[in-house]
Specification:
By secondary structure, the chain is of the alpha/beta class. It has a domain of 110 residues: Cytidine Deaminase, domain 2. 31% of the residues lie in helices and 28% in strands. It has 7 helices and 7 strands. A 5-stranded mixed beta sheet has the order 2-1-5-6-7, sandwiched between helices. The protein has a two-stranded antiparallel sheet with strand order 3-4. Strand 5, helix 6 and strand 6 form a beta-alpha-beta unit. The N and C termini lie far apart (46 Å). One of its GO terms (cellular component) is cytoplasm. One of its GO terms (biological process) is pyrimidine nucleotide metabolic process. InterPro entries: APOBEC/CMP_deaminase_Zn-bd, CMP_dCMP_dom, Cytidine_deaminase-like, dCMP_deaminase, dCMP_deaminase-rel, Deoxycytidylate_deaminase_dom.
Length: 176
């Protein structure tokens, strides 16, 4: 095989690291969403994390989800309407676990690849963590606009991978 043919079949770095994030997400035992995150500096993988209950605590598969109900004002078919939402509060998000288990020095100037666009809380934490870039695949429309505004104001590169297909059997259906 020639060098040109070898390079053409080789995955680009974004795909490579996002594939790893999706593989990490398979460790999640959350019933609602599997999320994985990886910390990268240059081309060096520095850490991985996924969403789940705190270590040593029964997770959602063992104890059930710890659901809270919230109401949000949303526009549905052109009319504002109160919509009931449910969210699990047992789970620590992948981005939060990544920050808990990596060093600040490693995060300075690094990139985080995450399967899902960070929520508002995770975005705030990432914005204060020293990273310079966040790359994600699946959107999280609820917080998208304010998260993008935050990242712009902090000078953090915030981008999605549009033409990406997760590795087989790693993409778990998402419950809103």
């Amino acid at each position: 095989m020639t060098q040109a043919n070898n390079d053409a079949s080789r995955k680009d770095w974004d795909t490579y690291f996002m594939d790893i994030a999706y593989m990490v997400a398979t460790r999640s035992r959350c019933n609602r969403r599997h999320v994985g995150a990886v910390l990268v500096q240059g081309k060096k993988l520095l850490g991985t994390a996924y969403n789940g209950a705190p270590m040593g605590v029964e997770d959602c598969l063992e104890a059930g989800c710890m659901i809270v109900e919230e109401y949000a004002l949303e526009t549905v078919d052109g009319a504002e309407k109160m919509v009931k939402k449910e969210r699990c509060i047992r789970t620590i998000h992948a981005e939060q676990n990544l920050l808990l288990f990596t060093d600040r020095n490693d995060r300075e100037g690094s990139t985080v690849y995450v399967t899902d666009q960070p929520c508002w809380t995770c975005a705030n934490m990432l914005a204060n963590s020293g990273i310079r870039e966040i790359v994600f695949h699946r959107p999280y429309p609820k917080d998208s606009e304010k998260v993008e505004t935050l990242m712009r104001s902090k000078g953090i590169i915030f981008r999605t991978i549009d033409q990406y297909e997760p590795p087989a059997k790693t993409s778990r259906a998402v419950i809103s």
